[in-house]
Write a structure and sequence with these properties.
Layout lengths: L3 E3 L2 E3 L7 H18 L5 H19 L25 E4 L2 E4 L31 H169 L5 H15 L3 E4 L2 E4 L2 H27 L5 H12 L5 H15 L6 H15 L7 H14 L2 H13 L7 E2 L9 H7 L4 E2 L2 E2 L2 H19 L12 H14 L4 H22 L1 H21 L5 H12 L12 E2 L6 E2 L2
Antiparallel strand pairs: 1-2, 3-4, 5-6, 6-7, 8-9, 10-11
Helix pairs in contact: 1-2, 3-4, 3-5, 4-15, 5-10, 6-7, 6-8, 7-9, 8-10, 9-12, 12-14, 13-14, 14-15, 14-16, 15-16
Organism: Cicer arietinum
Keywords: mRNA transport, Nuclear pore complex, Nucleus, Protein transport, Translocation, Transport
InterPro entries: GLE1, GLE1-like_sf
């Protein structure tokens, strides 16, 4: 179909213009108008430009636009305004009419003859084509509206979906927090239940262990009772067998003792002849001293001192020579020592015979005795239990009693070197044992005399004609030798002090209903013999100080004023003689003895004398 012409303007019935093409057409039209009419007002160009820009904006917005030509006023009021209306939708551009008017006063000659309207706009089309174009345009608009509606619906759906997702996430977070709180509560509750279950389990386990422990203890007690009963039966049988063996051994020993008795009788006869004169002199001096003490009991201490000095001068000059050594001692003390040493010698010989005839091992028996002695403590129940155990071991038929006694004596003397706080406890055990086994006391004293001669008391005199050197003399009085080297005098004096401490504790120990075979009267005799017969030196001074510290309290309770007189003798004679030696090593001992007398420490109970009870808070005094 060809282009249509309307009033000289050609229009394409099927326009396919773009906005750029329209703009170019309008610019070309404007240029032609400017070239043909130079007298056109300036504002017409501006108006045209504004129309073009307005059309551009309308097209960009997708709406139709109207292109209007400016109106020119003339002097004639009857002239109608002419307008150029341009309507366009999409790609369709319609120009209904183009009116060009001049004022009435203008002449036709003023019009540029070259101005002619050119067919730059689309031509008119038929009704069918116009209707088709309108339908197409409406269809496109409807499609665009549908698309815009779809897009709007999609945007709305997307926004709703986003809001739903956000709310869902919030609900999920809130559910998560709630779930975590519940989990925490459940976890706390579960842990509490676990703790309670564990506590119940541990309680049950502890209860079960206690029950098992009680059952085990009961079983052990029953087994111990059964074993004890069994052991008693075995002991009775063994005791009967041992009695038979002992009877046979005693028969043999009696024959040997008869032989030894004959030899001993001869030796004693010779010894008695030697000591008879000394004993008679001592008896006379003792009787004289007793008479003077009785007469002067109310007299001053000076009278007693002079009497003790005379007794001392009459006895202290008595020297006894044994095995080439010269001793200073009281005669009766030497006699008692010889009798005890003889019993000890016989015990050792008897044990030697048994060892040679028997190959039985008594090591376990010795360890039992040693363990019980080491376990002695200053407690009443401990002392009695250990004494009872040791008495059982001494009377055990599985081991000869002479063996048990020898072991016991040696272990006790060995413990005396370092008694510590068990000094009085050891003395209590000795007294309890010797009350049941009496001959143990003489054996113990003999072993103590052999170890420490100042327990007799006895002092060995140093003479160069007898001893080749001082070391030989020290060995003779009991210095120990290790690796070919003698111990120091300080160490020897410490051991001497320990022996005298145990000896002093033993003589002053008194137990109700128990007889002490070497009691306090023996301690009084020891003190008198030391002051009368022994010289004042560092050995006798240490012995005297240790003895007084332990036994002085008991001696004062028994002898009262007589003990005070004895202290005056010590102060006025013994200490004066010690000071005259002017030996620095003696000063400490002298000071201790002098302080003991001046401070009246004999009125104070020695520490450890009263055994402690493990069931009562008070001390048990013997």
């Amino acid at each position: 179909m060809g282009a249509l012409k309307l009033d000289g303007i050609t229009a394409d019935p099927e326009p396919d213009w773009s906005f750029d093409a329209l703009v170019s057409e309008l610019n070309a039209l404007e240029n032609k108008l400017a070239a043909t009419s130079s007298t056109e007002p300036l504002h017409s160009h501006k108006t045209t430009s504004r129309l073009i820009l307005s059309a551009e904006k309308e097209v960009e917005k997708g709406r139709s636009f109207v292109f209007r030509a400016p109106e020119y006023e003339t002097e004639s009021e009857d002239d109608d305004d002419k307008a150029l209306v341009l309507a366009s939708t999409g790609k369709r551009f319609t120009c209904d009419e183009l009116y060009l008017s001049d004022s009435d006063d203008s002449d036709n000659s003023d019009v540029n003859p070259t101005f002619e309207l050119q067919p730059y706009l689309m031509d008119k089309v038929g009704e069918v084509e116009g209707a088709l174009i309108e339908l197409t345009h409406e269809h496109q608009l409807r499609i665009k509206d549908e698309i815009r509606n779809k897009i709007s619906e999609l945007e709305t759906a997307l926004l709703n979906e986003s809001q739903n997702s956000t709310s869902s996430l919030l609900r999920v977070e809130k559910y998560k927090e709630t779930r975590q709180e519940l989990d925490k509560k459940f976890d706390t509750q579960y842990q509490r239940q676990i703790a309670e279950a564990l506590d119940n389990h541990l309680t049950a386990v502890q209860r079960d262990r206690e029950l098992r422990s009680q059952i085990e203890e009961r079983k052990i007690r029953n087994d111990a009772a059964y074993e004890e009963a069994k052991r008693k039966v075995a002991l009775q049988e063994e005791r009967q067998q041992q009695e038979k063996a002992k009877a046979e051994a005693e028969a043999k020993l009696k024959a040997e003792e008869a032989k030894r008795a004959a030899l001993e009788a001869e030796r004693k006869a010779a010894m008695e002849a030697k000591t008879k004169a000394a004993m008679e002199a001592e008896k006379r001096a003792a009787a004289e001293a007793e008479r003077r003490a009785e007469k002067n009991a109310i007299g001053s201490s000076n009278t007693v001192t002079s009497g003790m000095t005379q007794d001392r001068s009459s006895i202290s000059n008595t020297e006894t020579k044994e095995s080439g050594y010269v001793y200073r001692a009281a005669a009766n003390a030497l006699n008692l020592e010889n009798g005890r040493l003889q019993k000890l010698k016989e015990l050792y010989e008897r044990n030697q015979v048994i060892r040679s005839s028997s190959k039985q091992d008594y090591t376990s028996h010795e360890s039992h005795i040693s363990r019980n002695i080491r376990q002695i403590r200053g407690i009443s129940d401990n002392v009695r239990s250990k004494a009872s155990e040791l008495i059982k071991l001494l009377n055990d038929r599985q081991c000869p009693q002479s063996f048990s006694v020898e072991i016991f004596v040696k272990k006790v003397i060995s413990s005396c070197t370092n008694p510590g706080s068990a000094t009085f406890a050891i003395a209590y055990v000795i007294v309890l044992i010797t009350s049941q086994v009496p001959f143990v006391m003489d054996i113990l004293l003999a072993e103590l005399h052999s170890t420490c001669l100042y327990t007799v008391p006895k002092h060995m005199v140093y003479k160069k004609s007898i001893f080749q050197s001082k070391e030989a003399y020290f060995r003779s009085i009991g210095y120990r030798e290790e690796d070919g080297k003698l111990e120091s005098t300080e160490d020897y004096l410490k051991r001497l002090e320990s022996y005298m401490t145990v000896y002093g504790a033993m003589v002053q120990t008194e137990i109700p209903n128990i007889q002490n075979l070497h009691g306090l009267q023996e301690g009084w005799a020891w003190l008198a013999r030391l002051l009368n017969a022994l010289p004042a030196n560092q050995y006798t001074a240490v012995s005297l100080n240790a003895f007084l510290q332990i036994a002085g309290y008991a001696l004062f309770k028994r002898y009262k004023s007589q003990f005070l007189k004895m202290l005056n003798v010590i102060s006025n004679n013994f200490l004066v003689e010690l000071k005259s030696h002017n030996v620095p090593e003696l000063m400490k001992t002298v000071t201790d003895i002098q302080a003991y007398i001046e401070d009246k420490k004999f009125l104070q109970v020695p520490e450890g004398r009263n055994l402690q009870s493990n069931t009562l808070s008070r001390a048990l005094e013997p």
